[in-house]
């Protein structure tokens, strides 16, 4: 564990300007160390109210690591940690909804059961598996268990990008026809097996290109049609998935009175490069009333593109908000030969204005 801060780390830790702080942290450069020391700086030297501090991470593991390391620090301790909010964006949204949503809420699987146990994907998949018939995934639109991942991914896209699903349904119906012979095959199969014991004629379908294409079209039509049914089913059961949780929290923050009441005026966001479109809108609401706003991340390490994360948000942030930029260049984890090897692949795809010039401190 790092002891003394280097000059760039110290600049980030002690920053006290009016602009947001943008920490571009190279791999192994001690970003967690800097984040912890900046929290301590705000608490102990700037004397900010710990209840005004919001620290957003992108995994429960990262949140727990921060809490544990702060708890072990004699300058912080458990008492102050309990006054701050340190957690995932979903835990923050859950808290906002509990404060301002007029109805009691629960998240798929129960929020307390989710923490550290199951992912959003697992919980949505379990819910979909239970309600496949209710959502229309049967007969000609049959979707097997292995394809539920595709449904979850599409639902994520619909939520994050605000897709006009009725318009999508019209487009699929007009441009992706379902062969009548395929529908006849499904109907004959239903007559043989009955609806309660229906077995999808997989071999017959995949063995015929026309049937296979019709099945594909039917599945994607069913996914588009099922999205409003899915949200209605969640609402009927008083449940939120994590996308709906974020969307509803953002809608609440659109209310200027609610936004003004939010106590979190000192905001720190870790792994900022993994923010998706909705999360960025939430952060842009919070920055409006923030006394201090710090983002930490490394676009070299963006890992959540599969679920809508857009690294460009990270790169554009400093320009949009005229942020103070501090680049952490010293790698404490690897030797220089490893850093040089990685740089061969990463250097040319970085933004042209990137100031990263990573140097290792370890000899072996």
Structural notes for this entry:
52% of the residues lie in helices and 12% in strands. The chain has 364 residues and is of the alpha/beta class. The protein is elongated and about 75 Å long.
* Ends distance: 16 Å
Give the biggest sheet: 6 strands, parallel
> How many separate helices?
17
Kindly provide the radius of gyration, computed on alpha-carbon positions and rounded to a whole number of angstroms: 24 Å
The chain-level mean pLDDT equals 85
Q: How is the topology of this model organized?
A:
Blueprint: H1 7-13, E1 21-25, H2 31-44, E2 53-57, H3 60-71, H4 77-83, E3 85-88, H5 89-100, E4 106-107, H6 111-114, H7 120-130, H8 148-161, H9 165-175, H10 180-193, H11 202-206, H12 209-236, E5 239-240, H13 242-253, H14 256-261, E6 266-269, H15 277-286, E7 292-297, H16 311-320, E8 324-328, E9 330-335, H17 336-346, E10 359-362
Parallel strand pairs: 1-7, 1-8, 2-3, 2-6, 4-5, 6-7, 9-10
Key attributes of the depicted protein:
364 residues, six-stranded parallel beta sheet, 17 helices, alpha/beta
Brief write-up:
The chain has 364 residues and is an alpha/beta fold. Helices cover 52% and strands 12% of the residues. The chain has a six-stranded parallel beta sheet, with helices on both faces. The chain has a two-stranded parallel sheet with strand order 4-5.
């Amino acid at each position: 564990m790092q002891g003394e801060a280097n000059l760039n780390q110290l600049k980030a830790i002690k920053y006290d300007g009016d602009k947001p702080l943008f920490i571009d942290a190279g791999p192994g450069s001690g970003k967690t160390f800097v984040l912890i020391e900046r929290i301590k700086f705000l608490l102990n030297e700037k004397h900010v109210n710990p209840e005004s501090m919001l620290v957003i991470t992108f995994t429960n593991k990262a949140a727990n690591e921060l809490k544990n390391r702060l708890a072990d620090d004699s300058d912080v301790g458990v008492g102050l940690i309990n006054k701050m909010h340190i957690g995932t964006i979903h835990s923050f949204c859950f808290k906002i909804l509990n404060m301002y949503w007029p109805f009691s809420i629960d998240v798929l699987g129960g929020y307390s059961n989710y923490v550290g146990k199951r992912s959003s994907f697992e919980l949505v998949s379990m819910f979909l598996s239970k309600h496949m018939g209710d959502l229309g995934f049967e007969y000609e639109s049959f979707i097997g268990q292995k394809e539920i991942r595709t449904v979850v991914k599409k639902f994520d896209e619909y939520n994050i990008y605000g897709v006009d699903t009725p318009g999508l349904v019209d487009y699929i119906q007009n441009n992706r026809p379902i062969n009548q012979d395929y529908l006849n095959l499904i109907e004959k199969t239903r007559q043989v097996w009955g609806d309660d014991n229906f077995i999808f004629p997989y071999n017959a379908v995949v063995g015929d290109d026309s049937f296979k294409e019709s099945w594909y079209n039917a599945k994607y039509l069913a996914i588009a049609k099922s999205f409003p049914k899915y949200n209605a089913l969640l609402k009927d059961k008083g449940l939120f998935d994590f996308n709906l949780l974020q969307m509803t929290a953002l809608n609440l923050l659109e209310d200027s009175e609610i936004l003004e009441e939010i106590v979190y005026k000192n905001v720190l966001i870790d792994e900022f490069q993994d923010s998706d479109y909705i999360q960025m809108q939430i952060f842009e609401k919070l920055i409006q009333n923030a006394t201090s706003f710090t983002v930490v991340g490394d676009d070299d390490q963006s890992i959540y593109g599969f679920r809508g994360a857009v690294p460009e948000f990270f790169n554009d942030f400093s320009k949009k908000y005229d942020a103070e930029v501090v680049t952490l260049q010293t790698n404490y984890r690897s030797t220089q030969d490893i850093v040089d090897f990685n740089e061969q692949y990463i250097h040319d795809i970085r933004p042209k204005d990137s100031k990263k010039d990573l140097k290792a401190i370890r000899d072996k």
